[in-house]
Amino acid sequence: MKYLVTAASGKLGTFVIDYLLKKTNAENIIAMIRDPKKAANLEQKGIEVRIADYTHEKAMEAAFQGVDKVLFISSNANPNTLSDPTFSRIDQHRAVINSLKNANVKFVAYTSLVNAKASKTFLAEDHRNTEKLLEESGLNYTVLRNNWYLENELSLLVNASKGNLFAYSSEEGKVGWALEREYAEAAANVLFIENPQLIYELGGTSSTYAELAKALKKATNTDFDVKKISQVEYKNLLKEAGLAENIAEALASFQNDIQNGVLDLPSNDLEILLERKPSSLFEGLKELIQ
């Protein structure tokens, strides 16, 4: 059985490769990456590297030859990282799916977003459309709908652990934070399940930002102020920290989405794929904040 991981030189892909190495021999694993300069670390692990990016169907079709199962890691939505920056994210994903079909890949697992089909957040649209393309493709597939990485909050967490303000504007909205490596382990594990679920809603225990702050104080044994602020105040705080207007606006808007419940979808699917409970907030924070 041959397993291929797309975007394998990224952080999630690197974690997945390492978990696959615990489950099968290196000769059974293939890494698809965009940049040949990033091949060395993978090759040192005995992994075959194939070069292709999401804008070149023929290159991907060649990369997928002889592969049984693929983990399709979604694009990071930054067209400037690709050789053809005119491709939108959904165009990239469509090209991947076409290549998988043409290469007769037996199974693909796709990394999506929590509750993608019904979610109202702007982040969900490309994932929702990709899931629709998979549904229409005739491929045998599973969707891994990831909630939020705890690492996404790292800047906030590190600053607060140094005694700075912990500010948020999501009110009592909850998030299913989990460690990126646990999402990766779940993704690796699903490739070894004979008849996986069609959709897995993956995430940790749903928690508020206030609960995150409380866990951080305990994990780091530090004290800091925690303040619930308005969306406008949150945006201004981000701009004062040096973020561009459009980025600050998007992040503030997402806090509003969280307030409206877009990341609050309790599920034990991550526990099922890990075959254990995922790390608690306290455990995850202890790991991240050294």
UniProtKB/TrEMBL annotation:
CDD domains found in the cross-reference section = TMR_SDR_a
The UniProt entry, under InterPro entries, shows: NAD(P)-bd_dom, NAD(P)-bd_dom_sf, NmrA-type_oxidoreductase
Signal sequence coordinates = none
Domain spans labelled NAD(P)-binding: 8-154
Protein name listed in UniProt = NAD(P)H dehydrogenase (Quinone)
- Source organism per entry reads Pustulibacterium marinum
